[in-house]
Amino acid sequence: MNEKQSALMEQVDTPSLLLDLDIMEKNLQQIAAFANEQQICWRPHIKTHKCVEIAKRQIALGAVGVTVAKVSEAEVMARAGIGDILIAYPLFSPMKLKKTVALLPLAKVTIAVDHPRQAEWIQQFLAESSVVLDVWIKIDSGLRRCGVEPGRETVDLAKAVSKHPNLRLTGLFTHAGHSYAADSIAKIEEIGRLEGQAVAESADWCEREGILIKHRSAGSTPTFRYCGRVPGITEIRPGNAVFFDAVQVGLGTATFEQCALSVLGSVVSMHGNDRLVLDTGSKSLSLEQGAHGNATVKGFGHVVGHPEVFLSRLSEEHGIAEIHSATELTLGDRVQIIPNHACTVANLFDSYVLHRRGTVVGEWKVDARGKVQ
Questions:
Q1: Quick one: pLDDT band at residue 1, thresholds 50, 70, 90?
Q2: Mean pLDDT of the chain
């Protein structure tokens, strides 16, 4: 740990969520540059950071809007002045639809559909109003979660949606989350290419049958640089790439030097030469070790500058680490831990502690923390 890092550690209580602004800004600039190079749009998913200030910086760098997972996240973003929002999650609840419609004076809101019955149900909800909701069809490009099959099944749903007067079909989108189970960059590249083709070719199918598809959106963090090059794709939606994390490093899509988010912890207990305990348990780091079949990480976070320390177990308030070789760490010392999954960890904290080159420069609220509805 250098002197500047030491100074930072002394200013902040533990556990805290640290955000390196220099690294984050560089990450965002690289996404924006790629989108500009490919002449496509960029609609980042804010479920990673859940922060109004970060969303505004993404918009300032050229993002056309944001993607959210929940209506409650959309409410936070719309009320903060974000004017174009995709809710990339199926909606059925009348309560959620009522809240969505209430946002229309504040922002353009697009909803996701992946079943004819869902479209019919939304139409019934809107039938007595003059509201017309923009709709994108979700395509399953291999994750086997939500979404219709590419090609004919997409066309059939597009025809069904187009029959409803209160729904306006304007796009197709997908999420290649199965890329997180890839065992090589070559495999990620293949998944990304197929992801882009699933959307672009399905859009072509629709247009051959007279259904105009303006927006063709794809792009997880591992795949956006590959699907974004597929002819016909108009938009990418990486979320995690704002921060990156240990999973992305394991996949080979980032390095630890590109990881902007870390958890600051303290050594609170030591036992001989083989075990120490940090104050960063599952309520600070989460128990996640990677979604969608990912197997690239071991343990529960990367302890920066201390390869001899392996974070092997978490309880709620305790992070138990094995000491694999001699360490200089002792009681009261502080460490930075790059989390396995930045998205789930950000949701555990009320705020980010902002720093540049070891100096604390402010704090941002995690505005949509806990917004799950």
A1: very low
A2: 95
Residue percentage of the chain with pLDDT more than 70: 98
Cβ 213 vs Cβ 207: under 8 Å: yes
Amino acid at 223: T
What global pTM score does this model have?
A: 0.95
Q: What is the mean pLDDT of residues 258-286?
A: 96
Q: Secondary structure of the chain in the HEC alphabet?
A: CCHHHHHHHHHCCCCEEEEEHHHHHHHHHHHHHHHHHHCCEECCECCCCCCHHHHHHHHHCCCCCEEECCHHHHHHHHHCCCCEEEEEEECCCHHHHHHHHHCCCCCEEEEEECCHHHHHHHHHHHCCCCCCEEEEEEECCCCCCCCECCCHHHHHHHHHHHCCCCEEEEEEEECCHHHHHCCCHHHHHHHHHHHHHHHHHHHHHHHHCCCCCCEEEECCCCCHHHHCCCCCCCEECCCHHHCCCHHHHHHCCCCHHHCCEEEEEEEEEEECCCEEEECCCHHHHCCCCCCCCCCCCCCCCEECCCCCEEEEEECCCCEEEEECCCCCCCCCCEEEEECCCHHHHHCCCCEEEEEECCEEEEEEECCCCCCCC
